[in-house]
Amino acid sequence: MVSLYHSNIDSITKADIVIIGVPDESKSHARRKGTSKGPDIIRIASNESDFFERNGKIIPICPMRGCFDSKKILDYGNIKRENLYQLIFDLVSSKKIPIILGGDHAITTIALKAIEDFFGKVGLIYFDAHPDFVSSTTDYYGSVITDSIKCIDFGQSMMIGIRSAEPEELVNAGKTNLELVTPIDVNELGISKIADRVKSKDNKGKRYISIDLDCLDPAFAPGVSVPSPCGLSSIDLICLLKLAISSGIVGLDIVEFSPDFDVNNITASLVARILLESIASIKMSRI
């Protein structure tokens, strides 16, 4: 198995941040398959794009903002979906921050349940083209919010990038007063006003972030399982993501990368950057 060069310690007990791959797409209904390949391709892309080799040395690039100084990072490797709950529960109860690489989006349901069982309800910042709030069918990647409804503090939550919602999802979001931000909102209001909304969902650091890569416009991320036009730009996602992380998080996931549909490794390189900037934005004082 490929291991991230960012991994700099060899045990969970020493770690602050634990990166976990879940190469499973069994809860996906997408016609485009292959998200199970995501975790390892993300690792390869990170090792190729986040580091230079010169004179026999591997030299890391620096994030745009934030740092890696003194952060103890473990690449735990890949695990099966059925083992994810216990691992996440053990990590958060030991004050570790898990970063999960998917796989399909339904892994978020498992992570939220494990975190809620320890912390109680959490605020959720959900980057996605789809609300995943289907209730007529459950236990799949389109019902993440329905399946996690007892775990979420909706007043401290928001969705960003929404543009492919089913009617019932909008009804369900309205019932919970879940704030939805579309790419049109970002364009009309500007990134600074959306950033203010993200700041307002601080939840005292008890926040989980989930990134479905189809929140991005396919021009930036063609390699996703359910692409949707008119999405977020890569820099808008990075800006909002780094802001949300810097206020404190209890966990994060990156899902729905489908390498078989990527073009010239555009998506893979972007996911590597998302991972780099995410780690750099975690503040050690909140771990």
Provide structural commentary.
With 287 residues, the protein is α/β, with parallel strands linked by helices. Helix content is 33%, strand content 17%. The protein is built from nine helices and ten strands. It has helices at residues 38-49, 84-93, 107-119, 144-147, 167-176, 183-189, 191-200, 234-246, 266-281, and strands at residues 17-22, 51-54, 57-60, 73-78, 97-102, 123-127, 158-160, 179-181, 207-212, 251-255. The strands form two sheets. It has an eight-stranded parallel beta sheet with strand order 4-1-5-10-9-6-7-8, sandwiched between helices. A two-stranded antiparallel ribbon has the order 2-3. Helix 2 (84-93) runs parallel beside helix 3 (107-119) and helix 8 (234-246) runs parallel beside helix 9 (266-281). The chain is globular and about 60 Å long.
Concise overview:
By secondary structure, the protein is an alpha/beta fold. It has helices spanning 38-49, 84-93, 107-119, 144-147, 167-176, 183-189, 191-200, 234-246, 266-281; strands spanning 17-22, 51-54, 57-60, 73-78, 97-102, 123-127, 158-160, 179-181, 207-212, 251-255.
What key attributes describe this structure?
alpha/beta, 10 strands, 33% helix, globular, single chain, Arginase, Chain A, 8-stranded parallel β-sheet, two-stranded antiparallel ribbon, 287 residues
